[in-house]
Design goal:
Layout (H helix, E strand, L loop, with lengths): L1 H9 L8 H26 L14 H14 L1 E2 L11 H6 L1 E2 L5 H22 L7 H10 L5 H26 L6 H8 L6 H27 L7 H10 L4 H4 L12
Antiparallel strand pairs: 1-2
Subcellular location: Cell junction, Gap junction; Cell membrane
Function: Structural component of the gap junctions.
InterPro entries: Innexin (IPR000990)
């Protein structure tokens, strides 16, 4: 729990982003991380799988079978189907995601936070202290008179200094890659705008890639698989028929 508390304090929202950003890098990240920790506790502290074994098995044999089947993967069949005699057919029906769920969820949480790291690490190079300006501008709502005018003048002066710095960049005529970046970024005043749009695109790209990766990880060919699960639940089509996250599976071992 100390780790979770430290992580939450490190990713806490700031004033230089909006509600959509926070939904991605904070709320979604926290929910996924909590689920990852909860599932990890169940799998690696409790009993992640229980096997129905022959009556002559001792306790040690049963424990071996459960550990083996959890690591080796199991396979699912509808309850009324006959077990295939060919091992190839059994391998094609294997379910290999249960034991990897905590790690995949933790990785997803990290990737939801990556665009936020990009934004926070890059925006300070614009020469504009965006976080301080937004915080100061917000504070002016609660102050009046000379204090308010002083705060507004401070913000104005900072922006004027930033514009002057950008103009000094634009006078450079060298043709290095760094100067080209400055010409089309900081020198033209596009840096913060480009960075903000790039961060938004990273959030969208992250969600799209995670949908594709999750679909491949779960072995589904339907990209609307999540909607299909909701449709099955709404129509009373349980896992025994659909095979969505089956509770009872089979395992072969010697």
């Amino acid at each position: 729990m100390n780790f979770l508390g430290s992580f939450l304090s490190a990713i806490k929202p700031r004033n230089d982003d909006d509600s959509i950003d926070r939904l991605n890098y904070y709320y979604t990240c926290v929910i996924i991380l909590v689920l990852s920790i909860t599932i990890s506790a169940k799998q690696y502290v409790g009993a992640p799988i229980q096997c129905w074994v022959p009556a002559q098995f001792t306790g040690a044999w049963e424990q071996y079978a459960e550990n083996f089947c959890f690591v080796q993967n199991t396979y699912w069949l509808p309850l009324n189907d006959h077990i295939p005699t060919r091992h190839v057919e059994r391998d094609q029906r294997q379910i290999g995601y249960y034991q990897w769920v905590p790690f995949i969820l933790a990785m997803e949480a990290v990737f939801f936070y990556v665009p936020c790291i990009f934004w926070r690490q890059m925006n300070w190079q614009s020469g504009i202290d965006i976080l301080s300006i937004i915080k100061m501008a917000g504070d002016t709502e609660n102050i009046h008179g000379e204090a308010r005018a002083k705060a507004v003048n401070t913000i104005t002066q900072h922006l004027e200094d930033s514009i002057a710095l950008q103009e000094s960049f634009s006078k450079r005529t060298t043709s290095t890659w760094r100067s080209i970046f400055l010409q089309f970024g900081k020198a033209k005043g596009y840096y913060v705008t480009f960075l903000y749009v790039a961060t938004k695109m990273l959030y969208i790209l992250n969600v799209a890639i995670q949908f594709l990766v999750m679909n491949d990880f779960l072995g589904q060919d339907n990209h609307l698989w999540g909607l299909q699960i909701l449709y099955d639940l709404a129509n009373g089509r349980e896992w025994e028929e659909s095979g969505n996250f089956p509770r009872v599976t089979l395992c072969d071992f010697e």
